[in-house]
Design goal:
- This protein is α/β, with parallel strands linked by helices.
- 33% of the residues lie in helices and 31% in strands.
- Strands 1, 2, 3, 4, 5, 6, 7, 8 and 9 form a nine-stranded mixed sheet that branches.
- Helix 4 links the parallel strand 5 and strand 6.
- The C terminus is likely disordered.
Amino acid sequence: MLFRSFDADLARAIGQALGREVRLRVAKYNYAQKMVLSGEADAVSDLGLASASRDRFDFTDVVLVHEFGLFVRGGSGVASLSDLSGRRVGGVTGSILTFLRAQSDVRVVQAENYPSAFEQLTKGDVDAVAADTWNAADQLSDRSRGIELVGTPFFAASTAYGVRKGNDAVRDDSIARSGCSKRTARSSACGHGGSRGSRVSRATCW
C-alpha cells in the first residue's frame, strides 16, 4: 500500500530529482530520530531546528514553517493566549511545548499525538490545544462540531530534514549530484543512500 502524506510525497519528489529510490519508514517522532542516529535510516523529516537537536543532527535548509494556533471548545471563554492563565493546555511535542511551559500559570498537558490531544479537548480533559493549524485542520475534518480556532497563529516553528551529525556524505554528495537549485538540493540531501536506495524515517506525531 502506497503511503500518502506531504512528507512522503516530498521525499519521493526528492528521490526523483536525485535519480534514486527513497524508502519510507513511518515511525513516531522520537523513534524516528533514534533510527537516524543508529544508522538504521538516513534522514528524519520535519525535524525542528531546536538547539537540543543541533547537538545530534545536521540540517538541510528549512523545508516547512509550522504555524500554531489555539483550539478550544465553543463557548470556552478563551480567545487568546492571555486567557490561558490557570487553564490546562494540550500539546504534542517539540518547541511548542517549550513555549507553553515558559508561559506563567499555564498547565501543560502533553499528548501522545494530535488525535489524543483533540480527544482530550472534546472530553473536557484540557481547556485548549495548541496545534499546528495545518495538522489540526486534517484532524478536525471528520470530528464532531464544537471545536474552533480562536485568534491568529501565535507561534511558528521551522523544520527541515535532519541527518546524523557529521554525516556530510549524505548531505553534500547529494547536493553535488542532484542537479537541483541549492535550496532544493540541500533539502534533498537526505536522499543519499548508496546503491540500496535512500531511507527516510517520517517523524509521525499524530
